[in-house]
Write a structure and sequence with these properties.
It is a single chain. The chain is of the alpha/beta class. It has one domain: Rossmann fold (3-Layer(aba) Sandwich). 31% of the residues lie in helices and 23% in strands. The protein contains nine helices and eleven strands. The strands form two sheets. Strands 6-5-4-7-8-10-9-11 form an eight-stranded mixed beta sheet, with helices on both faces. Strands 1-2-3 form a three-stranded antiparallel beta sheet, with no helix packed on it. β2 and β3 form a beta hairpin. α6 crosses α7. The longest helix has 14 residues. The N and C termini lie far apart (49 Å).
């Protein structure tokens, strides 16, 4: 039998169920059913609807399949490559575990994933090749809002990946200036947050303004939307002065080490917001 994931708050391996039961009582928490579909060599995660919540190339389960999810790794443009294995990556929202698996298996850094739905964790372990927890990997059952606000994680995260869409994939579940301010407090001095937004939604500009507000005095960059409409936004707690030439050199290093990441294309698609 698989071990229960550690609780985000007390660290005990009751899987966070006590805290989630308390939350369900207070908030009438309803979690969607989890299923998957296969099309060719790709497996897709669904939360009770046809909308895709994540995917995996069945032949290459530890690569990142979707373009926007690859762009969520663009925080690598800001950090010395030699330091990556000593850093800490955190995902708020597990999805199909693409980012979690990549950080653990390929970056080989400490990785923590926060997921509120225990069915998603079970599905990733059964269907999406998510490894068991070890000394570098912790998959935690918890509420991203409460984890981001908790003092336990303050200033501990170098790469923060925020992808918190509802089961209809219509809008981010957490999208307030207060939430993004909590995310900023999770970051180390060199930390970078990457957020998945839908660039063709009328909510995009509002979401972007919330991030800019929360990261005042830091830096914010945005990708052009992908063909599917996903627009990844990057934010740093501290201001960064990076030239295109420096980014290009960094991107070439990234591609040599992790050929599945099209980092040189990121440089062309990123623009400064603030």
């Amino acid at each position: 039998m698989a071990r229960q994931p550690p609780c985000a708050f007390c660290g005990r391996r009751h899987g966070g169920l006590k805290h989630l039961q308390d939350m369900a009582t207070k908030k009438k928490l309803q979690l969607p059913e989890v299923n998957f579909s296969d099309y060719g060599d790709t497996r897709y995660l669904h939360l009770g609807t046809p909308w895709v919540q994540g995917s995996m190339n069945i032949e290459k389960p530890f690569d990142i399949d979707l373009e926007y999810v690859q762009r969520m790794m663009a925080g690598l443009l800001f950090v010395p490559i030699s330091e990556v294995p000593t850093q800490h990556a955190m995902q708020l929202g597990l999805g199909a575990a693409a980012l979690t698996k990549f950080c653990h298996k390929q970056l080989k850094c400490r990785t923590t994933a926060i997921e509120i739905n225990p069915q998603v964790i079970a599905a990733c372990r059964l269907w999406f090749k998510l490894p068991a927890d070890d000394e570098r990997l912790s998959v935690v059952l918890g509420d991203a809002r409460e984890v981001a606000a908790h003092e336990h994680w303050r200033h501990q995260v170098d790469h923060l990946h925020v992808d918190l869409y509802d089961h209809q994939a219509a809008a981010p579940v957490l999208d307030s200036p207060e939430f993004y301010a909590d995310c900023r407090r999770l970051l180390t001095d060199v930390g970078v947050m990457a957020v998945n937004l839908f660039g063709r939604s009328h909510r995009f500009e509002r979401s972007l303004s919330h991030i800019v507000q929360a990261f005042e005095g830091g830096g914010v960059w945005a990708f052009k939307p992908t063909r599917e409409g996903n627009a990844v936004v990057l934010a740093t707690a501290a201001p960064r002065s990076v030239t295109r030439e420096q980014w290009q050199d960094q991107a070439e290093q990234i591609e040599r080490l992790w050929p599945a990441l099209p980092a040189t294309r990121w440089v062309k698609a990123l623009s400064v917001v603030s």
